[in-house]
Design goal:
The chain contains no helices and 13 strands. By secondary structure, it is an all-beta fold. The protein has one domain: Jelly Rolls. A hairpin with a 4-residue loop joins strand 8 and strand 9. The chain is globular, with a radius of gyration of 17 Å. It starts with a strand and ends with a strand.
Length: 190
């Protein structure tokens, strides 16, 4: 039996940019965009874990949605995990904490390699429906990602892959800033 360990590949050294765009925008500082060399993904079952914490704000009237995603590939734009459009609460929130965590497990290698991606996001600004509900301690909503049946996604494991974490708002009335971010390689040896 092998010895397992976690290896922190990158952490973000300062708060990321505050994003309000209704277009796909990276949530990371350039320093935190990890470039994995060609051949980094070497065996089926190899796994990356991505963890991010930050703050999210939304408005009362028409709070809109947010889509969080992880991209890889030469420019970090091949989306391998998408949250889909996540509803935000119809209660105004200003810079409240959120927590995002995702696992990407290699299922096949090559130019059409696959990941099995799954994750979750937790925070008061999220809601399963855009309805007003009283905020109380412990009223954080956890949403599973994806919001549909999990399925593999395709990427090229033979090239250098830039790992990026991005979001897309449906409106420009919300804001997100990632304060902490880490990419972990879940390896084994022996």
């Amino acid at each position: 039996m092998g010895i397992g360990y976690y290896n922190s590949l990158v952490t973000m050294q300062a708060a990321g940019p505050t994003v309000t765009a209704a277009a796909r925008t990276s949530l990371l500082n350039p320093q935190a965009k990890l470039l994995l060399p060609a051949g980094f993904f070497a065996y089926i079952g190899q796994k990356l874990k991505i963890v991010a914490q930050g703050q999210l704000s939304n408005v009362v009237t028409t709070p809109g949605t947010i889509l969080l995603d992880i991209g890889v590939g030469a420019t970090g734009t091949t989306v391998v995990l998408s949250s889909g459009n996540l509803g935000m609460s119809a209660i105004a929130h200003t810079t409240l904490p959120i927590w995002f965590e995702a696992d990407l497990t290699v299922r096949s290698l090559g130019t059409s390699a696959t990941f099995m991606p799954q994750g979750r996001v937790t925070g008061k600004p999220f809601n399963t429906v855009a309805a007003a509900a009283a905020d109380t301690i412990g009223s954080e909503t956890t949403l599973m990602i994806p919001g549909t049946t999990p399925a593999t996604t395709t990427f090229d494991s033979t090239i250098a892959n830039l790992v990026d974490f991005a979001c897309t708002f449906s409106l420009t009335t919300a804001a997100i800033t990632i304060q902490q971010y880490e990419v972990i390689s879940c390896n084994w040896g022996g």
